[in-house]
Structure formats: structure tokens, C-alpha cells
Amino acid sequence: MAQRFSSSLERMQENQATPSLAEEFGVEGEWSMAVRHRIRWAECDLYGHVNHTAYLVMFEDLRVAHWRSLGQVLRADQAGPVVAKLEARYVRALAFEDEVLLTLRVPGLRNTSFTHDYAVWKNGLCFECKALLVCVKDGVSTPIPPEARRLMIERDGAKPA
Amino acid sequence: MAQRFSSSLERMQENQATPSLAEEFGVEGEWSMAVRHRIRWAECDLYGHVNHTAYLVMFEDLRVAHWRSLGQVLRADQAGPVVAKLEARYVRALAFEDEVLLTLRVPGLRNTSFTHDYAVWKNGLCFECKALLVCVKDGVSTPIPPEARRLMIERDGAKPA
Amino acid sequence: MAQRFSSSLERMQENQATPSLAEEFGVEGEWSMAVRHRIRWAECDLYGHVNHTAYLVMFEDLRVAHWRSLGQVLRADQAGPVVAKLEARYVRALAFEDEVLLTLRVPGLRNTSFTHDYAVWKNGLCFECKALLVCVKDGVSTPIPPEARRLMIERDGAKPA
Amino acid sequence: MAQRFSSSLERMQENQATPSLAEEFGVEGEWSMAVRHRIRWAECDLYGHVNHTAYLVMFEDLRVAHWRSLGQVLRADQAGPVVAKLEARYVRALAFEDEVLLTLRVPGLRNTSFTHDYAVWKNGLCFECKALLVCVKDGVSTPIPPEARRLMIERDGAKPA
Question: Which family does this protein fall into (chains A, B, C, D) (predicted)?
Fold first, then answer.
């Protein structure tokens, strides 16, 4: 499993993932992107843990980085991903300054939408989320740009529906 | 339907909901809490719409108000709700200064957990979310306090599982 | 002092301030706007207090409300206030669910800029801030719209420099 | 000037600053810490620019990193820095995905307080801020821990008042 994970990671240029990351953080499954993150002060709340909304901001950053890795830009006047659905599961609480790994993969895509899986790892799974993203331009759904579509399928292993 | 909605709303002391709210915002179904909200500058992003994380902060406020209405307090050293799961659906985009209605209900509860439904309304449904909340004290799940349990069942219509 | 404060407050339509607010919160000086606020969960950090950035978001809301009270709208393609300088003093810490009063006044204005004073009150002063705001359109400074200028001087008592 | 800047940077272990950073970003003056940053989606607002509060969160991260570099931890039950005053000047607007350099230095210190200068650079100065930080434990000011005091003076060049 870790084997396939690392080979998948090696395909990403931007994020310097190494085979040992999977072992270091207890990652399971195959992921397209992996980014180290240290929990920030602003991400924690009065309970002393990462606030449930902070996870979604972390993955907003990862989603932006992924979109950029597809040769696209995020701008109000360009086709870009808009969150249509989220299913999040908070498995284990995280604390200030915890060192974690954020991962992303692209399970599938359709004409105007695609799915992302996100996860946070530290000695195994801490958080996981499935997102449905619709490609939107000027307020209406629009086909995924061809180059982005090609890379999601060929590089990220996304399955067309 | 609006009839049952309003009678449910009348049970809440804190939020001054009136029968006409359901009509004004196109609310469907029966809800225990309803709060008017005007979309804030800080809730919008570069797309010109409410950011997907901002909805969850709005409902954090509503969840806090609901917990308080159960005679409880939110403090690190007391039993309190922690988000374990979220299922959110972004139905229609909202813009800066939109006037919306936020609603909350409590579909069910178990010994140490309960569920919340959240929705945002403006000429009908704009956003909906199901949350599983675990009652946690000192990092471990703990039974819902008896008074909170009683009010969730009797006042909010929560169904014990 | 409280006398002048209340008469100033009465000039504001939007925020239902009464003479007793000054006494209730220990307000000193004369203010044009006053809004009650209960400290939110999302505004507090690991220290158990309101995070220093949260005060500035509270006053972003008040600044928006004030701009609207001048007959203006906040939109990317319209003249609107942009923060050029801030001087903030954190006098006493605030905690979750504290009931506070937020106040705003407009000490002075020039052709393309104006100043705001902000304060948070609870048994006296907790936070104060002076802001220099530049009226900006399409990325360059632009004269304050005449109607806004008139109201800032006549209603809010702003002194032209 | 750049000479002194780089030698100062070399003293920091954590942040891999090189002499060329000063030239790349148009940095002026001598700084103790320098961190590259790419403007995030969540930091921008409807105006299409970095929101004025986002700068302060960026420097909260830098302040935390600096405190850690002094051999200290940030915890509710330990002596830690609390913001007492801020003076911020927004010099030039920044946009989504701009590559900037964040810098920090420690101009001076007293028994229970110290000062930080923060700045954001991109082809010269974009933002600058002076902060007065009070060392607080259990809600009251407390002397700066000796090791932190020593490093601020010897490594960061802070001048005792």
C-alpha cells in the first residue's frame, strides 16, 4: 500500500513527497498530493484543539495548489472549482503545533464536476473528507478545461463516470 | 407545513421567530431555531460569494446558542458538543449583505451523541448540513446531561435511537 | 459626557442605542454608533480570550454598517473605504460570551480619506483603535462621495481638515 | 544594508534565509527572521486584495515561530506574549498568489514586555507594523524568561530600555 502511495506521490512535482512520508505519518491508501503542515495558533479554539472549520481552510489551500498543478488559475472570471458537497469525518482531535500530513486525491470526474478526497494524518488517520466540486464560470457550471481533465485522469488516476 | 414550523419556533424563547418567517424566507419543514443573518464582508471570498467555510462558522454560533438554550455552558472543563461528522450541501450561492434565515433542528439523539440539521434560506433553500455531535468531557465521550437530554426530546422533538 | 453620548446615539437610526447604554457598559466620550455584541466561540483562541485579530473583524462589520448608513454600498466597482492605518490598544482581555458594546465615531475627514475611532466597552474600556480610511475606486484614491461627506460632517460631527 | 540584513538572517536556524532574499524582495533594513509566503485564497476579500486582518494572522504565525526560537512554548499555563498595542500601515495592496517575504525583528525589550516590527515585502515595502507584546502568565504580566531575554538581546539585537 505504502508502495503505491509513494509512486503516486512521485508524480507530483510541486510537493516534495518522499516514500518515507507514508510511513512517518501512518498514511493508508494512494494519494496524489501530500503537504506537511504544522497546526497554527489561529486554527485552534477554546477546546484546545483544531476547530472543525480550520480543516476545510487547510484543504482549500490544497485544492488551490492542485488546481494550479493542472495548469489552471483561480480567478473570478475563469472556470474554477466551487464546493457543492462535503462529507467530513473528524476521527481524532489535533492540537497546536502538531506536525501533520495533508493528502489529496481525485477519485473521479464527470463533464462539469469532479471529486476530491482529503485526509489529515498523524500516527494514522485524524480527519477525512469527500468533496464534490463543480467547475463554474460566471455563476454557471461549465466543462472542466481539457488540459485539467487530461491531467486528472492520466496523472491523478481520476475515473471518468 | 409552515404551520408546524411556526409552532415549533414559538417554543424557543431566545430567538424571536414569528410565523411569517417561514413565508418570508421560503422555509420548508419544521425547525426548532431560526435566526436572521446578514452576510458579512468577512464571510465572502474572491468569487464574490460566501466562502464554503463561513456557513460552518454561522452554525457554530447557532450550535452554541442551542447548547445554551439547553441550560448548558460551553467550557473546556465541561461536557460539550464536538463535531464528529458533517454532510454539507451548497445549493445556491449567497452574496455580501444578503438577508438570510439560519435554522436548526435536532432530529435524534443517543446516549453520548446527537444530530443537528442546519439550513440557510433565502427564497428557499440555499445550504443544508447534517452534523453528528458527540458530547465530550476531558477528551472522552460522556452522556448528554439529563436536562439537555430532556429538552432536546420534549422541546426540540429529538427522537432517541 | 453620557448626556452628549446618548444624544449622539439618537441620531443613528439603524442601531437602537438608548441613553442607558453608556451607563450599562461604562462608555466614556461621544460616539456615533453603538452595537451590542456577544463574544463568539470563533473569536476566542487557546489563551481563552478574544484573539487580537477578532476585534478588527468586529469593527469591519461596524465600518460596513456605517458606510451603508451614509447611503453608500460596498462593492469592488464602487468608491469604498480601504484601511490605510490602524493604531490599536488592547486594554483588558475579553472572554467567550462576554456581553460588550462596540462603538464607532468619525473624528475627521479630508478630501479622499477619513478617520474612525472604534472601542469595545464592558465595565469601561476594553479595546480602542484609530483607523485611517482612504476612499478607493479601481485601486486609486478618490474623493469621498458628497452625500457621505455631508452626513459624516453634519450627523457624525466629523471635522474637515 | 543588505549586508547587515543577511548576516542577521544567518543567525536564524529555522528559516532558511539567504543573502539574496533582501534583493529579491526589495527589503530595506536589518531583520531577524524572514519567511516566504504565497497569498492564500482565504486571505483575500471581495475587493480582490488581502484583507487587512489577514496580515495580522500571518504575523501571529511568525510571532509564534519567533517565541519557539527563543526556547519557549506557547501554552495557556505558561508565560507567553500577548498583544498590547499595534500600529499597522498598509502601504501597497497585495493580491491572491502574490509571492511575498514576511520579516520580523525585535527592536527593544523591558522587564515584562518587548517590541516586534513586522513587514511584508514584494518589490519593496507593502505593509509594516509595530507591536508591543506583554509577557503574560495566568492573566498577569510576568518577567520575560531569562533564556528568551538573553537570545532577544544577543541574537536578535533587541535593546533593553
Answer: Belongs to the 4-hydroxybenzoyl-CoA thioesterase family.
